Amino acid sequence: MTHEEIRILLSALVDNELSPEEKSAVGQHLEACAECRREYSRLLRLKEVTSDMQFFDLPDRLRASYWREIYNRLERGAGWIFFSIGVILLLAFGSWELLNKFFLSPQPSPILKIGVGALILGLIVLLVSVGRERLFTRGHDRYEEVEI
């Protein structure tokens, strides 16, 4: 066997997966090759270290809590999506009806149309402003600048 073939078989030797003939050939090579002996001792040490490792098993209550949390997020996300679609559709329909039946109709006086338009525009500006402020302050601690 060549030097490279022996190096490939070193991990199989560490895991005790070699046939007796292969074990003998690798053993003879290890007696003669210091580089492969160092590699073999590194692999043995690695196996020793990793064999002591164990996965941390979550308690059942934490696992259940984790899945409940994910379910709640998905549920809330879907709820907000449907709510948003509903609001958009209702606002679009209401805007269309308001435009057709109120603003384009000759019956309401121009002062009334301006007043309703200003009221709607002011409401939109306030909603956007409050929404933007809520999004901005969401990730900040409101008491971070308070000194005691």
Structural summary, described in words:
The structure is a single chain. With 148 residues, this protein is an all-alpha fold. It has a domain at 3-51. It has helices spanning 3-14, 20-32, 34-51, 60-103, 110-138. Helix 2 (20-32) crosses helix 3. The longest helix has 44 residues, at 60-103. The termini are far apart. 3% of the residues are buried.
Secondary structure elements and pairings:
Blueprint (H helix, E strand, L loop, with lengths): L2 H12 L5 H13 L1 H18 L8 H44 L6 H29 L10
Helix pairs in contact: 1-2, 1-3, 2-3
CA distance, first residue to last residue: 76 Å
Rg over C-alpha atoms, rounded to the nearest angstrom: 36 Å
Shape: rod-shaped
How many strands in all? 0
Outline the low-pLDDT stretches. none
Series of secondary-structure elements, N-terminal to C-terminal: HHHHH
Strand content: under 5%
State the secondary-structure class.
Answer: mainly alpha
Largest sheet properties: none
Helix fraction bin: over 70%
Roughly what is the average pLDDT, rounded to an integer? 84
Number of helices: 5
